Amino acid sequence: MAHRSSAGSPLPSRVPRDFRLPALLGAASTSLVLGLGCGGGSSSHSSTAVSLALVSPAQIQATLAQAGQVPDQTLEVQASGDLNRLAGQTIYAEVVDPDSLFVHGPLTVSAGAAPGTFSANLAGQVLANAGHYTGTIEILVATDPTFTNQLAVPPLALPFDVTVTATSTRSVGGNSMIAYQTLDAATGVMSGGAGVPNPLSSTAVKAVEADGTTVLQGSYDTLNGDYSILEVPSGYYWLQVGSDYIWTSSSSVSLSWQQAGRAVTLDTTAVDATFDVTRMTPWASNDYLLCYDYNSGLHVNWNTGTAGTTSQTMTIPWLGLPLVDTTQGDAPQVIQYVDSVQGTSTVHTSTPTNAYSWSGTMTNGQSSTFYPVLAPIALTDTVPVYFQRSAFASYRSQYNPAYILGWGPFMEADSLAGASAIGAADSWLDGVTWQDSNNGNVGDVALGDIPAPVLAPGCQRIYYAGETHYLVLTAPGAVAMAFPVRGIRSYTLTPPTSGSPLQPLVSPVKSPIINGVSPLVLPQTVAGLTPSIAWTAPDLPSPGTPDEYEVLVYQVGADAGLTTATQVARLYLPGTQTSLVLPSGILAHGQTYVFLIRSYVDSTSAPSTAPFYYHKFPYGLAESLSAMITFS
């Protein structure tokens, strides 16, 4: 039926998809089940009472460059005859796509303006291989899932003639600079230069062609962080930077970013830092102590204490934490956050109450002891607490709730130096936190103004709210563990009000599938290590195009009898891209993985040309989780 001059990668044959659209053909209580596959036809006989005709397009003709995308198509179908005979039946429809010209995912179907008409939208695939693709796409429509009683015999036919021309190669490259932004804690003045080189010699930078398998190695200039890769075909490709993958067609991709704080040295030994803290507010359940410093990026919580005590000793393993040095402008603090109940036993706020600024220089391999004597913090400012919890909770069914232990609704008002210029840096100073541990409470929150400390010099208040999700995974033979993920969140520098509460800016993607046919939310075993993953764009923002997607891949394993989840890849895609083919080298045979698809709204986002900069305010994110999937 079809011919092509270069080999493709056929996907599994058809599996119907349930769309259930009442009266789509003009018959009461009629519904559709639709699918998109590459299999062959079925033996059948026709239902002569109803006939179908493909109104448009008459054929698909296209010429595109290698790694170009087949144009999207809208199929218009006319049904005629005794449509009332279809009342109460489920109609099964399927597109048989032998050359995988279109994304094998959920179809968007809608009723036409005229009675008995309907349309289905097909999203074009990126074709990595040059060649001449000719043949016929078939549209099967039947009253049963085995396609025995078809409404069109022979099936509706759509000829295609697509030429993919070989492209010339080009050199791609860019620069990797780190622009450190330090803070003078006394004056609030931010300072930082044009940046320092981030040498790439220790990081694998490669170009992976659009088919996900062909890899081109880059070269480096270790003095200034420049990289270049020769003979990369025109069109889209994956730029691999270690375990990060950037989907781009650009010849120039910046791997630079702004870094809040200074260049720091992390402790590489197993020594401890001890804090003998005194003059606390009597310790209560849900209180915690925070060690924080902007310039070094220090942010460590301690939530263990004895009720009623006003002093305690914190012993913190410092491995992997920054070595604080107050001679380089660091201004570390120990802060006590005191919990209070708000109305019901499940609703709490946490407020910074006492603080101590400590000084000294930490040395790698040497233990340190500090003696914080806390002093009260004056709560002479206020923060408004208004957020539309019901709107965040309305998307819970889209997160794969079978793997969610619980939801954690919250709102915070934190502070960060240089927030409007730098964006969402890695480490913020905790402020006032509101949270509810009762998942059944979904009412909106309007507490008004809550006492808070004044902002430190140079800092801005960040307001954000949402739901933190707890992903439960169980590796074979291991104890189940819960892993917190971001869930759904909105961030802004604008104080919320009763008339403009914090609410979602973006929602999770819908109907994620793997290899074109199988829902990603179902546990399964998949053959091959370069699967395709596709999804439908989220409802928010309307009309459903976010600014960026990230797909995170976690390998599920076990350590000392406990389940682990280790991130092995992060893939960056523009918001117009709703499918991908996973590059080779990420997955391994016999291993189990979880996929997290994250949608972003951020008008400054540039995932294909400068993916590593912080997100700028305001922005929002929402996540969709897969089931545990094993690859054979």
Describe the structure.
The chain folds into 4 domains: 3-165; 169-260, Immunoglobulin-like, CATH 2.60.40; 264-377, Immunoglobulin-like (Sandwich); 378-631, Immunoglobulin-like (Sandwich). The protein has 2 helices and 50 strands. The two termini are 31 Å apart. The protein has 632 residues and is mostly beta strands. The chain has a 19-stranded mixed beta sheet that branches. The radius of gyration is 28 Å and the shape is globular.
Structural class of the helices, strands and pairings? mainly beta
Biggest sheet features: 19 strands, mixed
Helix content: under 10%
User: Distance N terminus to C terminus?
Assistant: 31 Å
Apparent shape: globular
CATH superfamily of the largest domain: Immunoglobulins
CATH class label of the largest domain? Mainly Beta
- How many structural domains does the protein architecture include? 4
Assembly type of the chains comes to single chain
Strand content: over 45%
* CATH architectural type of the largest domain: Sandwich
Mean model confidence by pLDDT: 85
CATH structural fold name of the largest domain: Immunoglobulin-like
Describe the structure in brief.
The chain contains two helices and 50 strands.
Give the helix/strand layout:
Blueprint: E1 3-4, E2 17-18, E3 31-37, E4 45-46, E5 50-56, E6 60-65, E7 68-69, E8 73-81, E9 90-96, E10 108-111, E11 117-122, E12 126-127, E13 131-142, E14 149-150, E15 156-165, E16 169-174, E17 177-183, E18 190-191, E19 196-197, E20 205-209, E21 215-217, E22 219-221, E23 226-233, E24 237-241, E25 244-248, E26 257-260, E27 272-277, E28 288-293, E29 298-302, E30 312-317, E31 333-342, E32 344-357, E33 368-370, E34 375-376, E35 381-387, H1 389-393, E36 404-417, H2 419-422, E37 429-436, E38 445-452, E39 459-473, E40 481-492, E41 510-514, E42 518-519, E43 524-526, E44 532-536, E45 548-559, E46 562-574, E47 579-581, E48 592-601, E49 619-625, E50 629-631
Parallel strand pairs: 3-9, 4-14, 6-15, 17-26, 25-46, 27-33, 43-50
Antiparallel strand pairs: 1-13, 2-3, 5-8, 7-12, 8-11, 9-13, 10-11, 13-15, 16-23, 17-18, 17-19, 20-21, 20-24, 22-23, 24-25, 27-30, 28-29, 28-31, 31-32, 32-34, 32-37, 35-38, 36-37, 36-39, 39-40, 40-49, 41-42, 41-44, 44-47, 45-46, 45-48, 48-49, 48-50
